[in-house]
């Protein structure tokens, strides 16, 4: 059963694509202005929502798009690093996030506060909470804490489940069957077929990041495939530069 969808911000995402517009530290695209342009581009292409990281990025994106904005802050890269504190979550709301994405695992949080404290603070500030989870137990914990929706974002990254080649469809199916809040698919969704499979598994919406907004990784995929193909052609005795 699906609940918590009366809010128009969350309802606007139903059955649609959310694009994660993020760049990694040290990359040329790591700029609020660039991420804002990327956000505008994906909205022009049909994205129903944008997911973005960092207060400056959120501030740059918010005036330029009229779709639901999911905001987060990353602190480090280990343990609880996705919007890890109550203060981080409130900063995201102030920067314009409609929904704040937070770590929804059962691990200890850096500020010593339970997840429920973050959820309560975000709700009091007028925004919603998306709990990024790695397992069914995480998701049940997040729902009990008051999360408005749950994401499969951390599946395979917390040690509770294996890293699947594509999206963790088994977990998605489990979450949809047992939760009373919308389940948003995220993680290792590399092409439209993967995205459609997530919707068919019952996900409320689908978040895609690197496959759309990370040129380095996209280029690497093409380059590796071409290298592999040229090697295979050479091994077969065919000239790799001719269409035979």
UniProtKB/TrEMBL annotation:
A single BP term in Gene Ontology: N-acetylmannosamine catabolic process
Catalytically driven reaction(s): an N-acyl-D-glucosamine 6-phosphate = an N-acyl-D-mannosamine 6-phosphate
Swiss-Prot/TrEMBL keywords: Carbohydrate metabolism, Isomerase
Pathway as given in its UniProt record: Amino-sugar metabolism; N-acetylneuraminate degradation; D-fructose 6-phosphate from N-acetylneuraminate: step 3/5
Highest taxon listed in the record's lineage: Bacteria
The EC number(s) this enzyme carries: 5.1.3.9
Molecular function terms from GO: N-acylglucosamine-6-phosphate 2-epimerase activity
Enzyme class, spelled out: isomerase
One GO CC annotation: cytosol
NCBIfam families the record matches: PRK01130.1
Function, as annotated: Converts N-acetylmannosamine-6-phosphate (ManNAc-6-P) to N-acetylglucosamine-6-phosphate (GlcNAc-6-P).
Family indicated by similarity: Belongs to the NanE family.
Protein name: Putative N-acetylmannosamine-6-phosphate 2-epimerase
């Amino acid at each position: 059963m699906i609940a918590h969808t009366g809010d128009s911000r969350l309802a606007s995402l139903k059955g649609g694509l959310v694009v994660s517009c993020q760049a990694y530290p040290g990359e040329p695209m790591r700029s609020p202005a660039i991420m804002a342009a990327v956000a505008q581009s994906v909205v022009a292409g049909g994205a129903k929502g944008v997911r973005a990281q960092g207060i400056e990025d959120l501030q740059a994106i918010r005036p330029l798009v009229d779709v639901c904005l999911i905001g987060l802050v990353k602190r480090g890269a280990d343990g609880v690093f996705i919007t890890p504190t109550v203060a981080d979550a409130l900063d995201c709301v102030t920067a314009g996030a409609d929904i704040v994405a937070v770590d929804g695992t059962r691990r200890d949080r850096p500020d010593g506060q339970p997840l429920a404290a973050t959820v309560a603070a975000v709700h009091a500030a007028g925004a919603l909470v998306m709990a990024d989870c790695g397992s069914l137990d995480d998701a049940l914990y997040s729902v009990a804490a008051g999360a408005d929706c749950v994401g499969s974002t951390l599946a395979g990254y917390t040690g509770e489940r294996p890293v699947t080649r594509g999206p963790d469809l088994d977990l998605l199916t489990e979450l949809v069957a047992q939760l009373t809040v919308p389940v948003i698919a995220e993680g290792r969704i590399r092409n439209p077929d993967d995205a459609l499979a997530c919707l068919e598994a019952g996900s409320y919406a689908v978040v895609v990041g690197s496959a759309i907004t990370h040129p380095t990784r996209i280029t690497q995929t093409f380059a590796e495939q071409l290298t592999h193909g040229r090697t295979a052609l050479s091994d077969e005795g065919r000239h790799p530069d001719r269409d035979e």
